[in-house]
Amino acid sequence: MNFQIKIFIVFVIVMVIIFSCINLVTIYFFLEEQKKHEKELISIYREILKTNPNHPLPPNMRKIGIDVELANTPIDEKFKEYSATLLLWEGLLLLSLSYLFYRVLDIISIKEREHEEFLRFIFFVLSHKIGNFLSATKTNIEILRLKPDSKVLDRIEKSCNVIYNELKKSMETIKKLPRVSKGKQFISINELIDKIISHYDPGATKIIISARDTLFETNKEVIEMILFLLLDNAFRYAHTKVHIKICKEAIAIRNDFSEIFKGSGIGLQIVEYLCKTYKLAFKYRARGEHFLVVLKLKK
Question: Beta strand pairing status for 241-246 and 206-210?
Fold first, then answer.
């Protein structure tokens, strides 16, 4: 039994106890007042009958010897009807409040799960970026061992700056996590892709970009993660070129490869999860010597 269900059960029990206490106090007060009124009425008629035994009695009162007593009255029947109606409406109110409270708990639970999953995948993406950084740094260190080169040092420095900025940005994303899941804004896909590409050293890889300045209303942090993972895979396994095409409603990334590549596949798994969570269409395929991914940003 999860925490939300326990809270819901406690809420229902507390509401039932509260309504029951209110009803008991109300009924007890009414019955006590009714008994007090009946005693006063019987006392008055007893005094009357002592002086005038033939004095007419009310319909709800009857004479027993020299004493009198009250019979059931229409007020008793009305009170029973009123009590039944009150209990019915209180039951409906309790059900309505319970349903609303359950819906609120359900929404809170969904948001918590979204934030938890989003945080987990931020960690995966960050681990992915750090892994790439360590791999590239290790290669550059091996080159430096063979031959000192200022260009290699520049690449290491650039990589350190990039990973520092990525860590800083990820921490900022985690801090504002409650509004990351649903927040949307207009962003330039061209600028976002240029920003991601600037972090890479393409070397002999040729980059072809076919695009016009396109704005999409979407979640910037999520799209940036997705594009980073897709472009990272493209640059890592490209043989001679990477072709990026930005269409009206989609982004296509294609790269060639000299042989079948093998990897952990975690990048594409994260992309698939994020696309499924944020209702984005994503497809990929390998045909011949090319690998193609298509990200559709609009339905």
Answer: parallel
